Amino acid sequence: MGMSVTIDRAAAQDAEQILKLQYLCYQSEAALYGDYTIDPLTQSLEGLRAEMEGTTVLVARLGGEVVGSVRGSVDADGTACIGRLIVHPRMQRHGLGGRLLAAIEERLAAERDAARYRLFTGHRSMGNLRLYRRLGYAPVSTEEVSRQLSLVTMEKEIARDRDLAASA
In 10 A of CB 121, how many CB atoms? Predict the structure, then answer.
C-alpha cells in the first residue's frame, strides 16, 4: 500500500528540506537559461527562514519527506504574489504542482483576502507556462531581465461567490 501526499502549512523545521528541494528543482531552470546565479539557487537558509516568517509557505509531504512547496503573500491592493512552486523531479507530471497551486490560492483568498493571483516564470519555461495557462492564468506582461531571460507575469482573477451569483 502506497503513501499519499499531503499538503499543509510549512513548519520552521521544514526550511532545510525546502531549500534542498528548491536547489534541486531549479537546476533545470538554470540550465535552460545558462545562469546558475538565479535567486532560488543563491538563497541562504537564513534568507529562507526570514521569508517564511512573512509569507504563507505550504509543503507537500510524502511520509516525512518534503516533495513540493509553494509560497505566497498578499500586497496592500489584494494581489496575491505566488512563487517558488517546486515539485521533486520524481513526483512531477502527477498533478502535484496543480494541487499545490490550488492550495496556496485557497489559503491566500481565505486567510489574506486576496483579490487576484499573480506569478511569473521564464519565457522558455514551456512546462510552467502550460501549467499556469491550464489553471486559468493569463500573461499580462513580459520583462526582459537579461539577453537570456525574460520574465512572463501571469495573473488570474479570483471568482467570488457574488460574481458567480451575478452570472447565474
Answer: 21
* Mean pLDDT per 10-residue section of the chain, whose length is 168 residues: 83 97 96 92 96 95 96 94 96 94 94 91 94 96 90 88 48
CATH architecture of 5-167: 3-Layer(aba) Sandwich (3.40)
Q: Helices (H), strands (E): how many in the chain?
A: 7, 7
Q: Report pLDDT for 148.
A: 86
End-to-end, the C-alpha distance of the chain in Å comes to: 44
Cβ-based neighbours of 78, under 8 Å, separated by 6 or more? 113, 114, 115, 116
Helix then strand then coil, in percent of the chain rounded to 5, is 40, 30, 25
Which grid coordinates belong to 90?
520524481
The ranges assigned to domains in the chain are 5-167
**Sheet with 65-74, side-by-side order of all strands:** 5-9, 56-62, 65-74, 79-87, 116-122, 150-157, 138-144
pTM (two decimals): 0.90
**φ, ψ of residue 3 in degrees (nearest 5):** -90, 150
